[in-house]
Amino acid sequence: MLAVALRDIGAEVEAVEDGGRFLVAIGSRYRDGSAVPPPDLIVTDVVMPVCSGLSVFEALRAAHWRTPVIVITGLDTPMVRSSAKKFGATLMFKPVDLLTFQRTALRLMATRHSAQHA
Questions:
Q1: Which of 44, 67, 80, 104 fits a disulfide with 53 by CB distance 3.0 to 4.6 angstroms?
Q2: Distance of alpha carbon 8 from alpha carbon 102, whole angstroms
Q3: In this predicted model, what pLDDT tens digit does every residue of 19-67 receive, in sequence order?
Q4: Is-contact 37 4, C-beta < 8 A?
């Protein structure tokens, strides 16, 4: 549903089934030493098989990625809020309003593009 919403606003989307596959997909893009630019936006759910969305997000920040991240969750806990705030993610709660999600995605991607060209 979120991938479709992103495609509807013109985004190119690569969807994966779980956090582990996401990390493998990212790693494979850089394995040969190529200078592939990072994605403009990452959307992750907190609860995912293999590796949680928060673990994926924290690993990206530990690797100095500054890509904007939207963390989706149905778990409104202090730990989730704290992690999102600490690492600079935009937190959205389920059920996700698709129009708000699209507007947030567009804003974050525009901010990233303006920062890259500044």
A1: 44
A2: 9
A3: 888 888 877 776 666 667 778 899 999 998 888 888 888 888 888 888 8
A4: no
CATH of the domain at 9: 3.40.50.2300
- 45 phi/psi in degrees, rounded to 5: -95, 150
Show the tokens assigned to 58: 């924290």
Beta pairing partners, 93:
73
User: Taking the complete model, does pTM exceed 0.85, yes or no?
Assistant: yes
Number of other CB atoms surrounding residue 76 within 10 Å? 10
The radius of gyration computed from the CA coordinates of the chain, to the nearest angstrom, equals 14
Strand partners for 71: 44, 91
Query: What distance in Å separates the CA atoms of residue 59 and residue 54, rounded to the nearest whole number?
Result: 8
- Answer for the pair 71, 52: CB distance below 8 angstroms, yes or no: no
Is the separation of the CB atoms in 113 and 40 below 8 Å? yes
**Which of these, 106, 82, 113, lies nearest to 7 by C-alpha position?**
106
- Which range marks the domain in which residue 21 is found? 2-116
